[in-house]
Specification:
OB fold (Dihydrolipoamide Acetyltransferase, E2P), cytoplasm, 3'-5' exoribonuclease (Csl4), putative, Exosome_cplx_N_dom, exosome, 5-stranded mixed beta sheet, single chain, Csl4, mainly beta
């Protein structure tokens, strides 16, 4: 049954009929056929391998998910002892989803919103950790390398157009005194921002928020071109010149 389905799907691609499968996450039904709603690996979940119940076909947002048939084990009749299973480590080149933590570079600041280019999609459980570069599987997994390159003004090129674009609206910058937010005092072009996805938006932009203490600017350069360090939730300082600049600062870990 799995051999009739593609390994990877693109939005709008027909996957099968509702007479053979149930529609799962990442799919939709139209005219009795199941179509992919997003791009990603095609997963077929068989709840009970020995039964004749239809399998569930879905499309995963994680590009590192292995496509194909996945059989869910039948639960044991007795309650097993509690065990702590190791959570699989996600790669950092997954597609943005609602509640994803992302690192993005500010490319434009306007009166009502800031436009950012998403650099890395982080696993929420490890968003505060920078992995060992010797253990990463690809360049997309090396957060330290990406941020070092992104923070260099010389690398602010047309490559941003090839990344996922997102908007941070004025009302999503912080949780308090939203009417007093001045976007030029929250972000500057070139800042590296930690935010979370609140909406998939339209086909052009995701929507992010920084309205949490741990979200906001994590890396920024001063007007003199020096890397700054945070001194409060709304101010960063140039260690060379001593000048302070306003930002919506993320709480350091």
């Amino acid at each position: 049954m799995a051999s009739t389905l593609p390994k990877l799907a693109i939005p709008g691609q027909q996957l099968g009929s509702i007479t053979s499968y149930f529609a799962g996450p990442g799919t939709h039904v139209k005219n009795a056929n199941i179509y992919a709603s997003i791009a990603g690996p095609v997963i077929i979940e068989q709840t009970q391998p020995s039964s004749k119940v239809k399998a569930i076909v879905s499309v995963s947002r994680n590009l590192n998910t292995q496509p194909g048939l996945v059989a869910k084990p039948t639960p044991a009749p007795s309650t097993p002892a509690k065990t702590t299973a190791a959570k699989p480590k996600l790669r950092y080149n997954t597609l943005p989803a609602v509640d994803s933590i992302v690192l993005a570079r500010v490319t434009r600041v306007q009166k009502r919103q800031a436009t950012v280019s998403i650099l890395v999609v982080l696993d929420a459980s490890s968003s505060a950790q920078i992995p060992d570069s010797s253990k990463t599987a690809s360049d997309n997994d090396n957060i330290a390398s990406i941020l070092t390159s992104a923070a260099n003004p010389e690398n602010h090129s047309n490559s941003d157009e090839l990344r996922f674009q997102a908007l941070i609206r004025k009302e999503d910058v912080r949780a308090v005194e939203k009417d007093r937010v001045v976007m030029d005092e929250m972000f500057r072009v070139g800042d590296i921002v930690r935010g979370t996805v609140i909406s998939l938006g339209d086909q052009s932009f995701y929507y992010l928020t920084t309205a949490r203490n741990d979200l906001g600017v994590v890396m920024a350069r001063s007007e003199a071109g020096n890397m700054m360090f945070p001194v409060s939730w709304k101010e960063m300082r140039d260690p060379v010149t001593g000048a302070a600049e306003l930002r919506k600062v993320a709480r350091p870990f």
